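Side project, low priority. Logging it here so it doesn't get lost.
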Amino acid sequence: MMKRHGLSTHQFVDPCAEQYYGYAPAIAFSALVENVDRAFNTLVNSKDTTAIITTEEHVAARLLQQAPLHGLRIPRDLSVLCMTHFEMASLLSPPLTTLDQHPDEMGRQAVAVALARLGAQSDNACIFPEVRLIPVQLMKRASCGPARPA
C-alpha cells in the first residue's frame, strides 16, 4: 500500500543485536542505544525517510531524542509510530503515537482456547487452529503527521 502511494518502504529492524539479549540490562541498553543511533543515521542520511515504525518503546523514545540532533522536526520531517502501547508514551516529547494491541485481552483469549482444548472429550480429536480477532486501537498523538512532499 505504501508503494501504491509513492512512499518509500525502507525497513527498520530491531537494532539490538541478538548477542545482547539475555545479558545484564545495562549492557543491553548500551548496545541498543548504539545500534539505534547507527540505524537512525543510515535512515536519516537516505533523505527519503518520512516515517519510522518500531515495535520497541525504547527504540521509539531514542528516535524522538535523536531527531532534533539531526535537525529533524517530529512530525513535520519524520513521523514515529510504536507498535507497542505503553503508559509513558503520552509523556514523551512529542507524545508518541502507538498501537494498543490489547495484550491483556490476547492473554485472556489464549487461556480460554487452551482451557477449551484441555477440556476436549477425546484425546484423538483433531485440533484445528482457531482465529480470534482482537481489534487494535490507534492512540493518536503528536509524533505522526502527513508525509512531507517529495
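Brief comment: Helices lie at 25-45, 57-66, 103-118.
Revisit when time allows.
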